[in-house]
Amino acid sequence: MRFDEAYSGNVFIMSNPNFDESQAVIYGMPMDWTVSFRPGSRFGPARVREVSLGLEEYSPYADRHLEEVNYFDAGDIPLPFGNPQRSIDMIEEYVEKILDAGKYPLGIGGEHLVTWPVIKAMHRKYPDMALIHIDAHADLREEYEGEPLSHSTPVRKACNLIGPENVYSFGIRSGMREEFAYAKESGMYMAKFDVAEPLKEVLPKLAGRNVYVTIDIDVLDPAHAPGTGTAEAGGITSKELLEAIMAISNSDINVIGSDIVEVAPQYDSSEQTQIAASKFIREMLLGWVK
């Protein structure tokens, strides 16, 4: 499985075809094998790339141009349909190779379970890491209907690996009673409903630390992002998520990698969800790749 050859399909806007010259690697994780409601996020990475061609290369938020960051689009990992365990093993191996090459990994999902193998690979390189998790859902279940490999479990798995005191969740507005009880009792940080303001309060506490950031597009209200598998009313706006991304960019934390997941383009004929995701990726590239 090669990760350093130029992708033959549509690539993210202004991607450099030379892997060796790149600072960051964009890669897709087209998996939706464990979703609990609507499938389709396996089509997210490809469509987010395609709509990125409509972006301006200049960001007025960061006052930077994409030509200032060197990144390589490796395309999608060829995950085996319907096989969660093999898929997450392949993702972990893939990200480990990116890290071994000294590159910043930026993943596009896919359902949220794909973040779990990435965290495992990141933790081996950065055992002192923390996690910033921006999402509508707590994702703190130990299993879903008896299945431990589920898109509702990655943050609980991360707590077990890196310690709940190193996990910071924002925007949470859905989950089981037991998930919210675990968050309260375990020592992890959880901000319900809002993202930007509580994040700004937490970032100084994480100054100097290695932090992985995962964003589930369903943190946005369905009015702003209907193209997702498990939409939850009462979410934040695109403007608020951009504010949060910029707060991270302007902080003193060391972002070691990131992903954006759960874009399911077939539920949004207006394309606003995938267009928003591509814009968020632009800001992540400009602000988080050092």
Automatic annotation (TrEMBL):
<keyword id="KW-0661">Putrescine biosynthesis</keyword>
<keyword id="KW-0745">Spermidine biosynthesis</keyword>
<comment type="function">
    <text>Catalyzes the formation of putrescine from agmatine.</text>
</comment>
<keyword id="KW-0620">Polyamine biosynthesis</keyword>
<keyword id="KW-0479">Metal-binding</keyword>
<dbReference type="Pfam" id="PF00491">
    <property type="entry name" value="Arginase"/>
</dbReference>
<dbReference type="InterPro" id="IPR006035">
    <property type="entry name" value="Ureohydrolase"/>
</dbReference>
<dbReference type="GO" id="GO:0033389">
    <property type="term" value="P:putrescine biosynthetic process from arginine, via agmatine"/>
</dbReference>
<dbReference type="InterPro" id="IPR005925">
    <property type="entry name" value="Agmatinase-rel"/>
</dbReference>
<dbReference type="InterPro" id="IPR020855">
    <property type="entry name" value="Ureohydrolase_Mn_BS"/>
</dbReference>
<keyword id="KW-0464">Manganese</keyword>
<dbReference type="GO" id="GO:0008783">
    <property type="term" value="F:agmatinase activity"/>
</dbReference>
<feature type="binding site">
    <location>
        <position position="112"/>
    </location>
    <ligand>
        <name>Mn(2+)</name>
    </ligand>
</feature>
<protein>
    <recommendedName>
        <fullName>Agmatinase</fullName>
        <ecNumber>3.5.3.11</ecNumber>
    </recommendedName>
</protein>
<comment type="similarity">
    <text>Belongs to the arginase family. Agmatinase subfamily.</text>
</comment>
<feature type="binding site">
    <location>
        <position position="216"/>
    </location>
    <ligand>
        <name>Mn(2+)</name>
    </ligand>
</feature>
<feature type="binding site">
    <location>
        <position position="139"/>
    </location>
    <ligand>
        <name>Mn(2+)</name>
    </ligand>
</feature>
<feature type="binding site">
    <location>
        <position position="137"/>
    </location>
    <ligand>
        <name>Mn(2+)</name>
    </ligand>
</feature>
<dbReference type="InterPro" id="IPR023696">
    <property type="entry name" value="Ureohydrolase_dom_sf"/>
</dbReference>
<feature type="binding site">
    <location>
        <position position="135"/>
    </location>
    <ligand>
        <name>Mn(2+)</name>
    </ligand>
</feature>
<feature type="binding site">
    <location>
        <position position="218"/>
    </location>
    <ligand>
        <name>Mn(2+)</name>
    </ligand>
</feature>
<dbReference type="GO" id="GO:0046872">
    <property type="term" value="F:metal ion binding"/>
</dbReference>
<keyword id="KW-0378">Hydrolase</keyword>
<dbReference type="GO" id="GO:0008295">
    <property type="term" value="P:spermidine biosynthetic process"/>
</dbReference>
<comment type="pathway">
    <text>Amine and polyamine biosynthesis; putrescine biosynthesis via agmatine pathway; putrescine from agmatine: step 1/1.</text>
</comment>
